[in-house]
Amino acid sequence: GQIYSNEINDGVSYGIYLYLMEESHVHSNVLDEAGESGIYVTTSDKIFVYGNSISNSLLVGISLMSTTYSEVTVNQLFDNYNGVYFIFSDDNKLSSNNISGTSNLSISLASSDLNLVSNNEINNTINGIFLSGSNENEVYYNNFLGTNDDSVYSYGLMVFDLFSYALVNSNTFESNYFSGFENALYYDNVG
Q1: How many whole angstroms separate alpha carbon 148 and alpha carbon 154?
Q2: Which listed residue, of 59, 136, 150, 157, carries a Cα 20 to 30 Å from 127's Cα?
Q3: Hey, is 93 helix, strand or coil?
């Protein structure tokens, strides 16, 4: 199925919510203040999220929860609290997105393995990319530009294990650019 060319404003929980879907396309939508999450995909496979404009989400612009073999590409995300979250989501692709003005995390991979994060432009953000309990991800050719605000404690890349059983192993970071963060790279409790 397809969800496309919608304009969604002033939502409460989710702008677009997909549950137990397979081989669906979500594209060319404009979401502004659509609620907690602009686009929320859970327990789904082969979902293609592309060409959307998402702004002013209370929690996250795009979230994949327990979702596999999906792609999030060529989206414009601006002024959201968080940009893109992958939670318990494996074998996905996040590429060629423009994420700006996030108040917290631009990209977060939590307990998510074997994902490709590439060619994204992240700018005017507090924190670039956060990994926790996530393994064998590939992060290539992204530009992470912070706020250059010394009054805010910020990270370009944070690899962190919240729990001793949620180790972060075998991730590859190559040819990424970081600028304007108090700490470019931060590793804590990494296996």
Answers
A1: 9
A2: 136
A3: strand
